Amino acid sequence: MNLPESLIARLEQLVEQAHRVLPPLPTPPDFDAPAFIWQNKSLISVYSKQPVALSDLLGIERQKQRIIQNTQQFLAGFPANDVLLTGARGTGKSSLIRGLLTDYQQQGLRVIEVARDDLAHLSQIRSMISGRPEKFIVYCDDLAFNAEDENYRALKSALDGSVQSNSGNVLIYATSNRRHLLPEFMHENQPLTRTDAAFQGEIHPQESVEEKVSLSDRFGLWLAFHPMDQDTYLDIVTHWLNKQNIPLDEIARAEALKWSLARGQRSGRAAAQFARHWSGLKLLENSQLK
User: Strand pairing of 35-39 and 42-46?
Assistant: First the structure.
């Protein structure tokens, strides 16, 4: 049956309008990329231009060795644990994940960064990478939940409770400033009478406490990071300055200590930021003298 030309033209117009409104089809991820971001239910390839080597991370030797060993087991196809890195800000938790990627991407390691609010998509991510020869770390940075947030249930299932858990080519590494990822309250650490429990609306209050602790409990390996002492802080400053052939003289040392006081912390992050500031300042001064 021949359709009228006017109808054919109208159908073509509708198809064109649909193409403008509908989102483009997702392109298959490039698994040669070292890292990915989960965004709009797609794996977006990321090619880092500022890699961090594990040798650049000082003052966290024990934590570094534990996570390297766990990751090497994973890459070799042997049993390995999901990892929770917790503790003081700026102490190298996130940098340690980037360092692993830098040192082990040639051995097939890949990192997929997932936002906390996208944890409900973990099963979809597992399906997309199922059967791939690479080994994937699903990485969630600065992980924490409030009392009303239900996303933690998806993470609990992915860690230990789902039939997809321990699927062979996926581990979950997460960082957080607190070890227990759900908020805890003072009254939860105090014995409750039946009258107290009824007043707070909780018939079995201890079960509520267990629910909060059980999430971090499902990570097989906990690594704690602590504020560093002054000598370690200055060692890290020296390390980064040496990369620019700039010495840590008495003036630089004094300025580095002032920097840490202004930041309210001695940490690897503060040390690297000061070294970036000081080396940039000195290199600019030297260029202006020429």
Answer: antiparallel
